[in-house]
Design brief:
The protein has helices spanning 42-50, 118-122, 125-138, 155-166, 180-185, 199-202, 216-221, 242-248, 262-273, 290-299, and strands at residues 2-6, 17-21, 30-40, 65-72, 84-87, 101-105, 109-111, 146-149, 170-174, 190-192, 206-211, 225-233, 252-255, 281-286, 305-309. It is of the alpha/beta class. Strand 9, helix 5 and strand 10 form a beta-alpha-beta unit. Helix 3 crosses helix 4. The longest helix has 14 residues, at 125-138. Bound molecules: NADP nicotinamide-adenine-dinucleotide phosphate (NAP). The site of NADP nicotinamide-adenine-dinucleotide phosphate has 25 residues, from helix 1, helix 3 and helix 4.
Length: 311
């Protein structure tokens, strides 16, 4: 048996409760991971409230995981019991990372960066793979590109700032002034406070915009791009009008959904090992404090990620 965070109905953080359930067993190509830490992402709260990709409850939230391999299923050669691993298994299907154990396809995991704690490693996969798939795979950022990162203090944003810098870009970020010193330390070249400045009016000639805002901001973000630039939108499929408006100016615009990505995870591990990317953990909570953790994450106003520890 194991402890997990379950929910039987949609709603606010109080629908989450601790329960005991059967420990899963790894099937062909799968690994059983003893979870040491699992991070909280906005999709967790959206799923808790609306079902999102998972539909109707019951389900167990959580995708980001860092932990220790407990057992391997038939055919797994990548890992052995005792290996420290991290990843974002199965997204957008149910992974159930808010639990003592998860089962994951072996290739949805990678060795945990040696220099990171489990809490730090759990903060990385979903947010950092999103940043990497947006900036490297979708936008193909090159040295010298002007990259505008909205929500630069957020889970995705603070990692996107570092990744864009590592790719040689000139990085412009939007964040509250209180976060500017820390974001400069992470590599941001220019910062705009979105509570004080009309950021879409203030930036021109960006090569790439990472849109963490969506809605009407996706449209307005086109004003900040140079002709031929790239807009990658994360929150939701873009308004139908964005793509044709962008296309008329040669701008490549589109929604991107992050996917499990062992190549990306290995690249992130290299960047962490090289000191070019490090996750910032805004706060840690124990698994039994999950409702508090969701409230903290949804309140915002901090830099970095919220992480659950599992003892
Ligand atoms: N499509 C995908 O695959 C994918 C993957 C990951 C995330 N996402 C989505 O991308 C969004 C960001 O994710 P996240 O993990 O980075 O969320 P997060 O950690 O909650 O960060 C969001 C950040 O945006 C800031 N912000 C709020 N209003 C803003 C504005 N008007 N202009 C600029 N920044 C603003 C927030 O600042 P304050 O907290 O100070 O208000 C916060 O720092 C979420 O909607 C998430 O669901 C999509």
């Amino acid at each position: 048996m194991m402890t997990a965070v379950a929910q039987d109905r949609l709603g606010g953080p109080d629908v989450l409760y601790l329960t005991r359930r059967e420990r899963p067993a790894p099937g062909f190509g799968e690994v059983l991971v003893r979870v040491r830490a699992a991070s909280v992402n906005p999709i967790d709260a959206k799923t808790r409230e609306s079902g999102a990709f998972l539909g109707d409850p019951p389900f167990v939230l959580g995708w980001d995981v860092s932990g220790v391999v407990e057992a391997t299923g038939p055919g797994v050669r990548l890992f052995r019991p005792g290996d420290e691993v991290y990843g974002m298994p199965l997204f957008p299907d149910e992974a159930g990372a808010y639990a003592e154990y998860v089962v994951a396809p072996a290739r949805h995991l990678a060795p945990k960066p040696a220099g990171l704690t489990h809490v730090e490693a759990a903060a990385l996969p979903l947010a950092a793979l999103t940043a990497r798939q947006a900036l490297v795979d979708a936008a193909r950022v090159r040295p010298g590109d002007r990259v505008l990162v909205h929500g630069a203090a957020g889970g995705v944003g603070h990692l996107a700032v570092q990744l864009a810098k590592a790719l040689g870009a000139h990085v412009i970020g939007t964040a509250r002034s209180a976060q500017h010193p820390a974001l400069r330390d992470l590599g941001a070249d220019e910062l705009l406070d979105f509570t004080e400045v009309d950021v879409h009016g203030a930036v021109r000639d960006a090569d790439v915009v990472l849109d963490t805002l969506g809605g009407p901001d996706a449209f307005r973000a086109l004003d900040t791009l140079k002709d031929g630039g790239t807009l990658v939108s994360l929150p939701s499929p873009e308004d139908d009008g964005v793509i044709p408006t962008a296309a008329a100016r040669g701008i490549r615009a589109g929604f991107m959904l992050v996917q499990p990505d062992p190549v990306g995870l290995h690249h992130l591990t290299e960047l962490v090992d090289a000191g070019e990317v490090r996750p910032v953990v805004a706060a840690g909570f124990r698994l039994e404090e999950v409702a508090l953790a969701h409230r903290f994450a949804e309140a915002g106003g901090v830099l970095g990620k919220t992480v659950l520890t599992v003892d």
